[in-house]
Design goal:
homodimer; about 400 residues; alpha/beta; Carbamate kinase; 20 strands; about 35% helix
């Protein structure tokens, strides 16, 4: 019987120091000793990517995306070579591979390339010869043989895609133990989830959970790759991300998330005419600005207020675009409120259970917090609140849905 | 008529700071504006290569050569991306290329790979579309699609090989103005040579002149590529390295060099039997230690002394090997004297002129310096002297052969 293949991905903070690189090498070596065929996927060490970008921007404020990719890809290549050498120093035969050497081909969309295909025969032949393959994450090669990168957190995607092509398990190691019912730094009794569904994980990733990259979760979902999120620094089993687990029947809400990196744009006294909202949101869409939690107040004297949220780093662009739309519409103007946060309850179980939303609103109200706006999806309820009330709101939701407790059939 | 192609190579110290990178970009841009098709070949910035090696050795004292190459190649890739972006920021359309993207294939001899072939069609197509191609020096790709490096100073070789394949001129920029008759820091009236022969340059490179890498000169010689060595930081025309120039008929000695990085091994009281010297030097050859300036004293009472020099960084290895040979031969023992230096006069003209050697020995003796040992080639005379007398010896040779003067037919 062939040995099982496991793809182990390690992020930048797990590789930030020489001691941590040694620890990661030891983890990989242990897995190899356990009888697995191991593929390691590595990110750039610590802040290397940011430092490279800083050096680049000093020379070219708007560098061509092709050159950004050429530069950034070196960070992962360095990590791969260092880990492979550290493994060899431990007597574990290992080779490093760039993205293109590992057979990862992408489209030519620099800085956020999509994987077209993974040709795993080179990795496979190294595994077959008993070696560990250490693959530089985050990168691939386009049809024009240019080096491309997969966007922030893209090493997760590399790992999932390699696991899929090799028929192996996928383990994503970071400095947190897995996916929690809430951020444990904020909600004291937050509980590590043993399992979570792809769709729930996608919502949490979109809400700023750093454990897994959204596109990697999506890829895993599409291709049926189960992803385990676990800690580099302890031996807990972490969280398994997979297709609809039995959990969904037990609990309506799986986790609570806070996204502080949002700002609210408020358009005041907009003439309540057909196409007014479109005039605002078309411009934002064209500029690639993502808009969320849209609320339009009831019309009074032919005028209405429209509020929506955007991520902080797109706030200035959004305000500028909105203001010029206001001028065209003859509206009073637009203001920006950065002092907000989005608190969300996520859970596939809420689809089949009425009353989840009202229970959420009640919990937040009972905590003395005023909800500014609400948006919901099939498996998510988001409430916009004042930023300094976000933590209290999250604690209230966590308690209201008994997330600190292991779910049971009686829930 | 097609535009002329020029390959401009910039070394690490020319790229050590952001300001220097800007200066290099400006030089390249200027050449492009002058109507040339420009290929830039770049080394890693400043001390990047040494820093990477240090990080690697902290993890793996004896790292696999394959992984060393994988790691080090990133330094040049980073430089290439930064320069290409800096050019674009100046409005000069440019793309960076790794060694393999630029079509440089090598053997699989990691850390000192030899170039097998240069396939210039990718570079050529970028030039044809009006762009500057910025190529990462020092690296290539093996038949097994592993990343290889060409050895210290290998970016010079990249530049010469690309110039050959593109039918272009080759310019090697560094922080010195070209090749001098002697080190200007030591010999005050040292003169910049407008031209030098390949064979002379090879001898000077072997003697530690840092201006050009020996293998690059050799490659240029074999393939008929003229190489211009010049400064990044001024506009002097530098030195042209080329096939036998008219100069050779004018002057017997072209330049004087000092190599301080040598040590002398002295084998005392070796039984003067057939094969004794072979017993010593075979072992050194096997260990890859280069030996120079060998002197055997006249035999007395069936015993002889044998002295030779090795480079400082091979001295300990050489002493160890020699000592074990001494034990096998029943010799008294071997000692190491690091307090020596090699002073050489190099010139293709000395082949056809008798008396050059005696003039050199006389000049050194008149400076009050005792010559410990002598070695000569067809175009070189080397004298081993005490290290603290090396500079005086070099000055004496420089003056004796009138090197400060422009050569004339009456010389």
């Amino acid at each position: 019987m062939p040995q099982p293949v496991v793809v182990m991905k390690f992020g930048g903070s797990s590789l930030a120091t020489t001691d941590r690189v040694r620890l990661v090498a030891e983890r990989i070596a242990g897995r190899k000793r356990d009888g697995c065929n191991v593929v390691a996927v590595v990110s750039a060490q610590g802040d290397v990517t940011d430092e490279l970008l800083e050096r680049l921007r000093a020379l070219a404020p708007n560098p061509p995306a092709r050159e950004v990719d050429m530069l950034l890809a070196t960070g992962e290549q360095q990590s791969a070579a260092l880990i492979a050498a550290a493994l060899c120093a431990r007597g574990v035969d290992a080779v490093s591979l760039t993205g293109w050497q590992a057979g990862i081909t992408t489209d030519g969309n620099h800085r956020k390339a999509r994987i077209h295909r993974v040709s795993p025969h080179v990795v496979r032949s190294f595994l077959d010869s008993g070696r560990v393959a250490v693959v530089a994450g985050f990168q691939g090669i386009s049809g024009e043989r240019d080096i491309t990168t997969l966007g922030r957190g893209g090493s997760d995607l590399t790992a999932v895609a390699l696991a899929e092509s090799l028929g192996g398990a996928c383990e994503i190691y970071s400095d947190v133990a897995g996916v929690f019912t809430a951020d444990p730094r904020i909600v004291e009794d937050a509980r590590l989830l043993p399992e979570i569904r792809y769709d729930e994980m996608l919502e949490l990733a979109a809400l700023g959970a750093q454990v897994l990259q959204g596109r990697a979760v999506e890829y895993g979902w599409q291709h049926g790759v189960e992803i385990r999120a676990l800690s580099t620094f302890d031996d807990s089993p972490g969280t398994l991300v997979r297709e609809g687990s039995p959990m969904e029947r037990l609990q309506s809400v799986t986790g609570v998330a806070i996204d502080r990196k949002v700002s609210r744009v408020l358009c005041e006294s907009v003439p309540d005419l057909p196409g007014a909202a479109a005039a605002i949101f078309d411009g934002l869409a064209e500029a690639g600005v993502n808009v969320d939690v849209i609320v339009q107040s009831p019309s009074r004297e032919g005028r209405t207020d429209i509020g929506f949220t955007v991520s902080d780093d797109e706030a200035d662009t959004a305000l500028e675009i909105t203001r010029s739309a206001m001028v065209r519409l003859g509206a009073q103007g637009a203001t920006l409120d950065p002092n907000v946060a989005k608190v969300s309850a996520v859970g596939a179980g809420m689809q089949s259970r009425p009353g989840v939303a009202s229970r959420a609103f009640r919990a937040i109200a009972d905590a003395g917090v005023n909800i500014i706006a609400i948006s919901t999806s099939e498996i998510k309820i988001s409430c916009l609140v004042r930023r300094d009330q976000a933590e209290a709101s999250a604690r209230a939701l966590h308690a209201a849905f008994d997330l600190a407790m292991q779910p049971s059939l009686s829930d």
